[in-house]
Amino acid sequence: MYQQYSKLKKFVKYLDKTQIDTILDNARKVNKRDYLILLTLWKTGMRCNELTHLKKKDIKIDEITIRQGKGSKDRLIPIDTSLGDLLNLYAGDMTLEDILFPLSNAQVRNIVHKHQGELDVHPHTFRHSFSLHCLKSGMNLRSLQKILGHSNLDTTAIYLDIVADDIKNDYKKVHW
After folding, report:
1. CATH code for the domain in which residue 67 is found
2. What percent of the chain has pLDDT over 90?
3. Is 122 strand, coil or helix?
4. Domain tally, the chain
5. Active site positions, annotated
6. d(CA 117, CA 168)
7. Chain-centre distance of CA 74, in angstroms?
8. How many CB atoms are closer than 10 A to CB 40?
9. Partners of 55 in the beta sheet?
10. Cα 41 from Cα 128, distance rounded (Å)
11. For residue 30, what pLDDT is reported?
12. Which of 27, 133, 134, 137 is buried most, with the most CB atoms less than 10 Å from its CB?
């Protein structure tokens, strides 16, 4: 089920974890690099432009450093060690200054489209899906704001309204 939320004419398109897992499984079967790109988008919530500028030196076992992200801000994104291991293994013999995925944003979009199946997915869809998954899993809104690199908490709070709508819809499924 592809979901969309509208608030103040701002559309937030996102996928649930099952849909993301399907896309990742499709990519894993076809191309390991594509899989790693999609997995990184999913597990970090980073922007496409941040992914395409990620250097080997920015990857640690449990965090990624985003340098000069949107608004020229640096930030840290915590990651699980399985993603850290995969990224470090992929980086292998690269120098510290080498870009992990030297692609254009358009090339990343093409990778996403290649593995989307029946869905209409964009790289930023992974960011929205990451955000909602984190909130539904109990992450603090302020922590999510820092991970996403939002200057204003209100920008991050848009996702709270979506979670509230999901709760109302789930409640309606209960038969009394």
Report:
1. 1.10.443.10
2. 77
3. coil
4. 1
5. 47, 70, 124, 127, 150, 159
6. 29
7. 17
8. 25
9. 99
10. 10
11. 95
12. 27
